[in-house]
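Re: [ENG-882] Designed sequences occasionally contain unexpected residues at chain ends

Forwarding the minimal case from QA. Structure tokens:
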């Protein structure tokens, strides 16, 4: 077998790319497993480039105010990847644009990128072993886990039945489909994601019914105000999605909603789509218990304000280790920290 990789980074959101940029500039020759492009990952919300690639405009990433980024994107990105992206709209940077720029920046410094998933790891001995979906084993002296988190589902049988036929957890991916044009749509959730999805969907839908289980939104003030002031958004407080209604020919045709304060009170609302925006679960299942996790399955950082995990030589960055801030910029920040931690650890243990 060839000699082990110095540093493998698993994951390709803001944490993964910023770790890669720092590590590549430090001559660690990082290898990034960015995830596979597959239907399975599309449905699970774990395609390459992470959750930010599933959002629309990003207004709060420092350094990207409103402006025309078209020319910058044209010059910064390779033609073949730029061609795959929609034209820039001349507002703020979009999530997919920001992620392409981060990927390119890491690549410019020599980061090697494999478009595949790591399905399994063996952290019981060094060098660590990583098992990619396409087969074989990759050995690594040091690993950064930056696999992020993916969207939650309610777990209703009717939700499962109509996935891909009107039920989705990604408005930006699916919102423009013809079935949603000028038709009522339901969004479930009360956080920033739910409001962002609802607002985005008003571009296409006749009405967006925002269904939230409590009597006030969890979303930040600015986002909540937007939802309240948007005439196309109708908010149903104290309400839960009880069932997605539909048939084999049309897919989703409506929803049955139940009151969360008077369980017997129900109503039916007509809709061609249901978008779930009810939070996220960290992508840690592939670790199979080899790193210490919190009760909510996030990776535990073992030292205060350091990215070291319970296994010496394995670091974690971004949403996979953060159930509190969960912002693109904080993920990028901890990505940077993990690369610096990895560099120092390698210097101590491997003479780098
Ligand atoms: P979140 O803040 O955790 O909100 C999840 C929402 O889903 C909550 O309103 C929650 O209800 C509801 N929910 C959870 N489980 C549910 C269930 N089983 N049934 C019904 N409702 C359920 O998640 P998020 O909105 O995805 O946001 C995650 C993080 O990303 C946050 O830190 C947020 O600020 C950030 N974010 C920021 C932006 C932005 O700044 N533009 C955009 C998107 C996300 P309760 O309120 O009752 O708990």
């Amino acid at each position: 077998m060839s000699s082990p990789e110095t540093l493998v980074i698993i994951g390709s959101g803001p944490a993964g790319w910023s770790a890669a940029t720092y590590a590549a500039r430090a001559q660690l020759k990082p290898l990034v497993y960015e995830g596979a492009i597959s239907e399975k990952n599309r449905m699970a919300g774990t395609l390459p480039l992470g959750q930010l690639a599933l959002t629309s405009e990003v207004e709060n990433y420092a350094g990207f105010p409103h402006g025309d980024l078209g020319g910058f994107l044209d010059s910064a990105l390779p033609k073949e990847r730029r061609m795959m992206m929609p034209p820039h709209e001349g507002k703020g940077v979009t999530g997919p644009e920001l992620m392409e720029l981060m990927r390119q920046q890491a690549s410019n410094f020599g980061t090697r990128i494999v478009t595949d998933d790591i399905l399994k790891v063996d952290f019981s001995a060094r060098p660590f072993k990583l098992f990619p979906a396409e087969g074989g084993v990759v050995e690594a002296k040091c690993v950064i886990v930056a696999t992020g988190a993916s969207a939650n589902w309610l777990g209703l049988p009717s939700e499962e039945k109509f996935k891909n036929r009107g039920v989705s957890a990604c408005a930006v991916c699916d919102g423009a489909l013809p079935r949603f044009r000028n038709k009522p749509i339901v969004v479930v959730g009360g956080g920033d994601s739910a409001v962002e999805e609802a607002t985005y969907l008003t571009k296409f839908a006749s009405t967006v019914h925002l269904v939230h289980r409590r009597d006030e939104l969890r979303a930040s003030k600015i986002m909540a105000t937007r939802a309240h002031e948007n005439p196309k958004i109708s908010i149903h407080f104290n309400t839960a999605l009880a069932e997605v209604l539909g048939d084999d020919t049309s897919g989703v045709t409506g929803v049955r909603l139940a009151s969360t304060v008077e369980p017997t009170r129900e109503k039916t609302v007509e809709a061609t789509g249901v978008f779930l925006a009810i939070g996220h679960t960290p992508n840690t299942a592939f670790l199979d218990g080899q790193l210490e996790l919190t009760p909510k399955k996030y990776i535990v950082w073992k030292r205060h304000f350091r990215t070291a995990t319970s296994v010496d030589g394995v670091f974690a960055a971004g949403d996979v280790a953060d159930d509190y801030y969960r912002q693109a910029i904080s993920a990028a920040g901890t990505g940077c920290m993990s690369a610096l931690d990895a560099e120092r650890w390698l210097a101590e243990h491997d003479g780098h």
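QA comment: On inspection the terminal residues look reasonable. The radius of gyration is 21 Å. Proposing we downgrade this to a documentation issue.
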